[in-house]
Amino acid sequence: MMKMMGPALAAGAAALSIATGAAAKEQINVGLCVSWPGYAMLELAQQKGLAEGYEINSVIFDDPLGGQAALAAGQIDIYECTGDYTPLAIDRGTGVVTVAFANPSYGVDHVILAPGMDASTMKGSRIGAPQAYIGQLLMGVWMDSENIPLDDVTWVNLLADEAVGPMLSGDLAAAYLYEPWITRVMENLPGASSGGNTGEDWMLETGIFTDVIYMNGDFINNHRGAALDLLKARFDAVGWWHDNTAEGNQLMSDFLQWPVADIESVIGSNGKFLKGGIYMYDFDESARVCGALEGDPPFGLENGSITTVIKTINDYWVRFGLMTEVHDPAAGVDCTLMADLVDQGYRQAIEANE
Questions:
Q1: Nearest one of 128, 206, 129, 131 to 167, comparing CA atoms
Q2: Are 80 and 179 part of one and the same domain?
Q3: Residue 167 lies inside a defined structural domain of this protein
Q4: Domain extent for 164
Q5: CA 351: distance to chain centroid?
Q6: Are residues 224 and 97 in the same domain?
Q7: Which one of 45, 96, 184, 283 counts the least CB within 10 Å of its CB?
């Protein structure tokens, strides 16, 4: 019996050693507010070993506000989502901050109009858009451009996938949609049209239709080294994806359970952007939006314009009745992590592959 136990104890000790080594990795909980390729870079970092010493646990919420609540509660440390929540985080004192801009929408987000609908026939209609999210913001900006008062319509709180059925059944006059839902509606609803999209120059120049990287403020304060490492790993993953785009898109497909064609319909295949999809900021571009690196960001934005963009969003939320006042946007921003990486000499500038 003792002879039999010897190897067993040795095997147990080896297993314990392995387990202890695995446990030594610091777990970082990362949230994706919806299943979306642009939010998957830290998952690529995990799979390709770009965050050495960390175990990244990625959670897909498919509930943007629920993910924000989890971030504020410290259940997740990092959250990738649209930047429109930043003013609300300030207003509610959640301690959540935006640390960097990740990628602007480059035409993937549309206002889709039902057959026969245009600005002149919109009054009194039902409009589908998710409240306190990019869809409501885009719909409001588009309505402003068409001189349609925001209270002339009935707002229905629907995510893009939830709006497909009501659009096809004729229950909505317009809806906020993105791919692949745009194609599904357009192919099955003859006469439907796009009223506007985020790839138009004037929309890009606002800077407000962008995905951002949020972090829990306590995570930054108590684990600043990890916050810096993970932010760098996220941009390292962007660079890896640029150099290995086909493999990266396949990994995203496996992780998100999307067909590769749908991944490419959003993020493209050139390692940088898809016109009609999204545009991935490299580190240098994002650092310039933060004002942490000299030079101008893309799309006519000014250096350090992150706070201007957030104030513009705040103005819209006041008009929508979601907020009652305009706050100092700097209260919802922490660009010091980007600045630290700049000071450490980190740089990244990538162009689309041919």
A1: 128
A2: no
A3: yes
A4: 109-197
A5: 21
A6: yes
A7: 184
Are both 139 and 215 inside the same structural domain? no
* Digit-coded pLDDT (tens) for 12-28: 444 443 444 445 899 99
In a domain, 158, yes or no: yes
Please say which residue of 197, 216, 234 terminates a domain.
197
Burial class (CB in 10 A: 0-12, 13-18, 19+), 239: middle
Are 71 and 135 members of one domain?
A: no
Mean pLDDT of 84-101: 96
CA within 13 Å, CB half, 259: 5
At which residue do the structure tokens 């993937």 appear? Answer: 108
Residue 327 Cα distances to 91, 93, 154, 311, angstroms: 7, 11, 28, 8
Average pLDDT over residues 92-113: 96
How confident is the model over 324-335, as pLDDT tens digits? 999 999 999 999
338 and 275 assigned to the same domain: yes
Residues 229 and 313 in one domain: yes
HEC string of the chain equals CHHHHHHHHHHHHHHHHHHHHHHCCEEEEEEECCCCHHHCHHHHHHHCCCCCCEEEEEEECCCHHHHHHHHHCCCCCEEEEEHHHHHHHHHHCCCEEEEEEEEEEEECEEEEECCCCCHHHCCCCEEECCCCCHHHHHHHHHHHHCCCCHHHCEEECCCHHHHHHHHHHCCCCEEEEECCHHHHHHHHCCCCEEEEECCCHHHHHHCCCEEEEEEEHHHHHHCHHHHHHHHHHHHHHHHHHHHCHHHHHHHHHHHHCCCHHHHHHHHCCCCCECCCEEECCCHHHHHHHHCCCCCCCCCCCCCCCHHHHHHHHHHHHHHCCCCCCCCCHHHHECCHHHHHHHHCCCCCCCCCCC
pLDDT at 3 over 80: no
Residue 132: pLDDT band with limits 50, 70, 90: confident
- pTM for the full predicted model: 0.88
Token pair in block for residue 64: 């943007």
Report how far Cα 35 is from the mean position of its chain's Cα atoms: 10
The total number of structural domains that make up the chain = 2
Same-domain pairing of 225 and 316: yes
